[in-house]
Structure formats: C-alpha cells, structure tokens
C-alpha cells in the first residue's frame, strides 16, 4: 500500500475521528482540519461549532496529530447558502448537504489540503471509492453499512475529486466504528450523530427560514377547489408534508380517493403562479404518486452519462432503491421512468442513479408527473 500525506476533515464527530485513527494506523501521515462553514449566531444553542472544534481538538490530541481551524464561511455563504435561499424562494426544496459536499468539502477543503502538501483527503462519510481497472476511472460505491450509506449526498463528485479522496469508515458498520472509538479511548466515542443542516442545527426550520424568505400567505385548497385553510407562504412547505398545515380538523368533502374523512392531509402541489397550496387526504392519493420525473443540472461521476437503460434510483436520502429506466436527453438533463410509482417526488431534491452498489451520479429534480 502506498503511504500518503492525508488531510482529514475532523468535524468533532466519531466518524471522522475513527477515520483519522484508521489512516494513522495504516501508516499515513495524517493532519486534521476543522472546517468552520457558518458564522451567523454560531454561539447559539442550535449551531455551536465552537463545541465541535473543542471535540475535534481533543480527538487530535488523543491521536497525536496536528489540527488546523479553517474558516470557509464566506465560500459557504456564496456558493451553498445563497443557492439554498434562491431555491426555497422559488418554491423548490433543495438539499444543501449535497451542494456543501460538492462546493466546500470536496472543493474549498480539497484545494486547501493540496496547498498544505496533501496527496489525499479523507472524511467520515459512509461511502467507498474504487478504481475500475477496465476503464481506469474511479467509481463511487455505497458504504457497506446500508443503513448509513451516504453516497446519495456525494453523487456530484467528479473523477478528480474521487481520485484524491479516502472514505475509511465506508468499509465498516457504524457499530464497529463506535467500538473502535471506545477501544482507543476517543473522548467523543459516545457523541450522538449530528442531524439536520449545519447552519440550522436543531432549531425549528420555519423559524430559521423566516429570516430570509419573504412571506406571502394564501389559500390552502383541496382537490375539489374548496378553500380549507391559509398557508403562511409556499416556500415554507414541501411535497408530502403532513405536519404543520393547520387543517387537522378539516374533513373531506365527499369521498376522496386515498382515504376516509379522518385521514391525514398531505401537501401535494404548489401553484407558485396563483399562490395556492394544494393538499390531499391519504398517503397514497394519486396526486402524490409519480411514474416518471425529469432532472437537470446533472453530474456524472464518470464524467459522462451512463447509457440509457435499466437502473435503480433514489429521489430522497432515506429511500430504498427504486427500479427505473434512464432516458438521457444530454449531459445535463435526463428523465427516469419508474417500475412503480414514486411517492412525493419533490422538485429541488436530487434523483441519484445506481447500478448495483455503484453510484453513477444524478441531477436536480425539475418536474415529476403525477397521476391524473
């Protein structure tokens, strides 16, 4: 095995800590970097990177490696957060974690690491990289722990980025990572996994979005056209949403497909032109089911789209792979036809394509056709 100077993104969490340990154990020269990506109200109860840095520094101390604190907040605000706000304002539901990986962790961070003389970078993501000897190209693979696989969030990585990246914990299950952390006495061995978007943390999402999005209230309507409530602004809702609609006591008018009169309401459509939020009753209402989707802004790990044919796809992170047929328009756009209708396919989210364990890439969902 070739030994390298590897710069590891130490987040303060257990996955990146064990990543650094495993690389050092293999004999690599390991340096840690803590990325600060958000500065606004950073000392609040919701978003405290200071605590994470203390944890990361404690890990570096135990492992006997250097750690550097690097501020990428300006890059993050310009290249991730601004796009996040634009997408929400337009009524779509973006995934900033995907953009953060493409623009910050594997661009700004990678560039900084190379300036430090790194030959490789590493993070605590649950994914794997493999060189395909028949093509000479690097492949992004799912992590071995299916319940923790994060290839969905990494699907925009290109050949140059994959060639310089290591994902050691992608070869392990989470229980094994925790066991190693405890065994070597890492101070964050039992630290709970972070959830949510880094700049929002655990705070109520609508409360955060309120600061940046213009509110324009309007009617909530059911499929018959009846107004059954008021929404606070279309940007604050996403397709498939059930909570926070304020119409829980409203009963259906007549018999609706998908559920009885006490069945929950779900957001099904957002009419941005007329500022109407359309809701339906029942999880399996036809308006929530899509046999196909279109996606743009495509990014393919191999540098070119895979040939049209049969694959599997995810339209959201926690979804099982869904059998589909790829119809590629060009390098930047494609359509997917699904074997089974997909639930609440949401514009702004990513459709990510797989061939077995290989993540091929994907694109941003622009449109999903619902059943009539």
What is the terminal separation in angstroms?
57 Å
Under CATH, the homologous superfamily of the largest domain reads HUPs
The percent range for strand residues is 25-35%
Number of strands: 17
Task: Describe the protein in words.
The structure is a single chain. The chain has a six-stranded antiparallel beta barrel with strand order 12-15-14-13-16-17. It is 23% helix and 30% strand. The chain is globular and about 70 Å long. It starts with a strand and ends with a strand. It contains seven helices and 17 strands. The chain folds into three domains: 5-183, Rossmann fold, CATH 3.40.50.620; 214-284, Roll (SH3 type barrels), CATH 2.30.30.280; 288-369, Elongation Factor Tu (Ef-tu), domain 3 (Beta Barrel), CATH 2.40.30. 41% of the residues are buried.
Q: Brief description of this entry?
A:
It contains 7 helices and 17 strands.
Per-chain topology:
Blueprint lengths: L4 E5 L4 H12 L3 E8 L12 H15 L2 E6 L1 H17 L6 H20 L4 E3 L4 E6 L4 E6 L16 H5 L1 E2 L7 H10 L21 H5 L8 E4 L5 E5 L33 E7 L4 E6 L7 E12 L8 E6 L7 E7 L5 E10 L6 E6 L2 E12 L3
Parallel strand pairs: 1-2, 1-4, 2-3, 4-7, 8-11
Antiparallel strand pairs: 5-6, 6-17, 8-9, 10-11, 12-15, 12-17, 13-14, 13-16, 14-15, 16-17
Helix pairs in contact: 1-2, 1-6, 3-4
